[in-house]
What we know:
Layout lengths: L8 H13 L3 H10 L7 H17 L3 H17 L3 H17 L5 H13 L6 H17 L3 H15 L5 H17 L3 H5 L1
Helix pairs in contact: 1-2, 1-3, 2-3, 3-4, 3-5, 4-5, 5-6, 5-7, 6-7, 7-8, 8-9
Amino acid sequence: MKPITNAQPQAAVSEVAAMCEAGRFEEAIARAEAIVQDGWSPDDVAQMRFHVSLANVQLGNMVRGAELLAQARARFEAANNASMLAETMAAEASLAVLQQRPDAIDVAARALAACRGLRPIPTELEVKALGCLAAANLNAGRWENAIQACEEAIERAGPVFDMRRQAKLFNDAWIDDQELGQLDKATH
């Protein structure tokens, strides 16, 4: 692996992001920590923190992941970077659901609102936020709200939706319908 200099922070961020996408979370964290960040812009540091936070969450390091997300979010807010702010808020919503926090519904609703404030609305991010909202409602026993969010996510996803995420949403909707005693709808 060739060293990355301070003049190439975007290359470093892209490299760490690719490692995360490939599921190489420990390697992504180690690589990010090995890169000297002196001279990097606050925006580049925030981008790196965002990806490293996701890697930490995937490895079960929820506290560290939450800390890094909060730091990245603060920078994206200060820089008026609405796109990355919405991404960060969706990651925070996912973390709130994983931790089954009592504020998970509110966190997911705010993430969805931030996503829908973007023009154009990024479909994949909107579906992710809707999935978090559905899961948060499911965890809270708010079956009808969970079904509504699942159905909306499935509708918004359309034909370009990955099968794994679609299967999870259909499964969540099935559970919600069963809890409400809507067996015909669950079977459908």
